[in-house]
Amino acid sequence: MKKTYVVFVILFSLVLIVGCSAQNNKNTPEVTQTKQNNQLTPLSEQITIDTSEYTDNVAYKPIITELKKNLAAWVELDRENFSEGFITAESAEQHYFLLAPPFNNLHFQGKITIVEFDDNPDRVDVNVQYKEQSNNEERSYTYNFGKNEQGEWKITQID
């Protein structure tokens, strides 16, 4: 009886190990394929936003500059440069999920919209449209900008 139990435990363990290792092997090519797909689309094709409506406004220039730098870092999956535009390191860390699937294969496009708030002059929202390259679905993100202690416009949140 003990011998049968030991054989059963060994066989069960082998089946479990083989099953888990086979599952891990199936996931590896998918991750590699995702990375290859990101490299196929040039940066210039992934960011085609139109900021022309706001280029003459000197007050918006630092906001648009931070926005463009952040979008470039996003599509390049560059965590360091992505973080630089945020008001705090903690705020940047909360948004690292955007650098992973399904958020890492987007085409930012169209006219941006800048919204100011009369009750809070140190806050500006920028709406950016995008398409998911996997399904061509159009959506938008809102970048919330605020001023840091030095008075510079930085990203507080992306929603």
What's this entry about, in short?
Helices cover 43% and strands 26% of the residues. It is an alpha+beta fold and 159 residues long.
Describe what you observe in this structure.
The protein has helices spanning 2-40, 43-46, 61-75, 79-84, 89-93, and strands at 47-50, 106-116, 123-132, 138-147, 153-158. Strands 1-2-3-4-5 form a 5-stranded mixed β-sheet. It is 43% helix and 26% strand. It contains 5 helices and 5 strands, in the order H-H-E-H-H-H-E-E-E-E. A hairpin with a 5-residue loop joins strand 3 (123-132) and strand 4. It has one domain (43-158): NTF2-like, domain 1 (Nuclear Transport Factor 2, Chain: A, Roll), CATH 3.10.450. It is α+β, with helices and mostly antiparallel strands and 159 residues long.
Labels describing this entry:
single chain, 159 residues, alpha+beta, Nuclear Transport Factor 2, Chain: A, five-stranded mixed β-sheet, 5 strands, 43% helix
Count of DSSP H/I helices = 5
Spatial strand arrangement across the major sheet: 1-2-3-4-5
| CATH H-level superfamily title | NTF2-like, domain 1
What best-fitting shape do the alpha-carbon axes yield? elongated
Helix content class? 40-55%
- Average pLDDT number: 80
Query: CATH class, anyone?
Result: Alpha Beta
Biggest sheet: strands, sense, closure? 5 strands, mixed
| Number of strand segments | 5
Which blocks of ≥5 consecutive residues have pLDDT under 50?
22-41
Query: What is the percentage of strand-forming residues?
Result: 25-35%
Distance between the termini: 62 Å
